[in-house]
Structures are given as C-alpha cells and as structure tokens.
Amino acid sequence: MARARSEERRAEILRAALEVIAERGYRGASLGAVAERVGLTQQGLLHYFPTKEALLVAVLEERDQWDTGGSGRSAGAWRPDLLESLVEYNAMRPGIVQTFSALLGESVTEEHPARQFFTRRYAQVREGMAAALRAEYGDALPGGLTPEQAAPLLVAVMDGLQYQWLLDPGSVDMPAAFRDFLTLLGRSPAP
To answer: Which ranges of the chain does DSSP label H, i.e. alpha helix?
Structure first.
C-alpha cells in the first residue's frame, strides 16, 4: 500500500513539474515551486527526486511513456500510422509540446542536465524509426532512401513542425503537414 501511494505521489510531482516547467521554463522552474504545487516542502520533494536534474529527466522519461503508450521505444511505437496519431495528439496539448521543445532547445548547451537524455533519446528514436520504416517499406523507401537515411529526416520533420506550429498555430496545421510528409514517403494519404 505504501509503495502504491509513493508511486501516486511521484506521478503527482511529475505532473506538477511539467506544469511549472511549461509556465516558467527549466531555468525558471524551482523545486520549491513544484513542491508548493503538490503541498510538500522542498525537503519532502527531495525524498522523491534528489535533484532538480533528476526531476527533469524523470519528467522527460514520463512524457516519452505517454507518447508511446507505455510501449517504450520499440519499432512498433514508431510506425508511420502511430506517428500520425501522435502528431494529432500533440496538436491537442500545446503546453507539453512547448515544454519539450523548450527543453530540447536548451539541452544543446554543453552543461545542460537534459543533454545526455536527449542525445540518448534521439539515438533510440532514430533506431526505432528505421526499424519501423524497414518493416513497412523493406530495405528502400519508394524514393530510394534506406530506412536509416530516412529516420533522421522523419525526426527532423516532426520536431520542425512542432516549432513552426508553436510559433504560428494559425498558419501551420501540424497534423495535415505531417500527413503530407507521409505522402512524400510513399504512403497513401488517409481517406
């Protein structure tokens, strides 16, 4: 029973941290603000997450779990049809997309605590996407690219669309643009 309550509390803290980071950015978010949001002292929060960096990485890992439906980073999680659904889902949650995008942008600096997370994540995502593309298209996509060549392009399109959509949501229809990209890959458009 105590373990279940501890897991519930961790989940509550992660949701609060995501909200605080979305509102203030990583640098502006404090452990105190997260603790206050869940009714804990900062010391109480440190019982669950010993550092701000540990909390940040846990938030990012939790977000990935939400996005893949708990299926991790297997090839099945990156099938084009599931990616299309993920893009549509992301269009309904701008705060989470904004937080992820801001943290991704910040993480390119040498000492950022999420740099290692994003570096590892992108390697795994590219690998999973290449496997999913290979399962769908074989050794070559209709345009002649190998799945390994197409995977980083697929990631770039997804992330680039998110930035464009966040900056000008009235002009960029992220789900429609992603469907257009899938058509370029050689997949028939959805009816």
So the answer is: 2-28, 31-37, 42-48, 52-67, 80-90, 94-106, 115-137, 147-167, 174-184
Q: pLDDT at position 32, please?
A: 93
Q: CA separation (Å) from 30 to 6, 11, 27, 33?
A: 21, 18, 8, 5
What's the rounded Cα separation, in Å, for the pair 65 and 62?
5
Per-residue CA distances from 134 to 32, 62, 78, 124 (Å): 47, 27, 11, 15
- Closest by alpha carbon to 80, among 42, 29, 133, 39? 133
Return phi, psi of residue 187, to 5°: -95, 135
Give the residue among 44, 52, 48, 59 at the shortest CA–CA distance from 27: 52
Q: Are 112 and 56 in contact (CB under 8 A)?
A: no
pLDDT at residue 70 above 60? no
Question: Which amino acid, 171?
Answer: S
Write the DSSP string, 46-100.
HHH-SSHHHHHHHHHHHHHHHHTTT-TT-GGGG-HHHHHHHHHHHTT-HHHHHHH
Report pLDDT for 20.
87
The pTM score is 0.77
